Amino acid sequence: MIKKMRVLAAAVIAFSTFAVSASSFPEKPITLVVPFASGGSTDGLARSIAERVTASIGKPVIVENRAGAGGTIGSAYVAKSQPDGYTLLLGTVSTSAVVGALYSNLSYDPVSSFTPIMEIASVPEIMVVHPSVPVNSVKEFIQYAKANPGKLTFASGGAGTASHLAAELFMNMTGTKMTHVPYKGSGPALLDVIAGHVNVMFDVVMTSNNHVKSGALKALGVTSLSRSSVAPSIPTISEAGVPGYEAIVWFGMLAPANTPADIAERLHKEFSLALKSPKVQELLAGQGAEVIASRPKEFAEKIVSEKNKWHKIVKEAGVTSQ
Prior knowledge:
- With 322 residues, this protein is of the alpha/beta class.
- It has 2 domains: 29-122 and 250-317, Bordetella uptake gene, domain 1 (D-Maltodextrin-Binding Protein, domain 2); 124-222, Periplasmic binding protein-like II (D-Maltodextrin-Binding Protein, domain 2).
- Helix content is 45%, strand content 19%.
- It contains 11 helices and 10 strands.
- The longest helix is centred in the N-terminal third of the chain and has 22 residues, at 2-23.
- The chain is globular and about 65 Å long.
């Protein structure tokens, strides 16, 4: 009896201590892990948001880059951290919805190991071709590709990347066949399309659109279901001949699994406010991004939906992490 009372007392003390820490959150700096190298779009977004949240909560939000293995190193670090709201992950469609299909020996689960806080923003890609490709629309491209199976080549930033899977989804939905030419990054891939060494690429709107405007590339369609605000004259692939086609690059905030609901709600509130900042909105608009700021439940449902979608494409296309 005495032993049971001691256990109960210890549980009460632990709960009380936790409740106090939750109500006064945050009491120390928050670490925002970016699972990619510094200097990229994910890193820039993280630093801009961290600056605004720091000013709001009065505690530093420190961006920490833990790159490698397709984002799995940084993701694993956050997944195994204490679920107290002080270690967060800026995840992407790749790290949350795709990576589980590419790596079979992960030490964490890309979905169940995290508490979704919010989808931050989404960015469409543009299907671009070198001017030498004799097509000017998605429908013409499909006809040409079917008449020349395997002849066309498409570039990507690497196996399993967003640019690669967007092309695989396109081929899956149109019954076309192209030859994949992977690169170590989207930058060199796009340069080779501009040079005419490769025919096609699906690339994020902020980098490809300038080359479309200059005439170095032809744009056939954007990968979102609605037209991009930075390229409104370019039709969506869905409206241009492939109904329902969508391949979006999205960013979201996640905490370790079992993060208390009140802390998750506080984080959602603070990051939502940060997204209303003119500086953050200007940064996102410059990247062709749409601010989402979804609720945790909505984000959780999207992650599962995207996981199912991309795992199917990865499996059917035989994509590996190489």
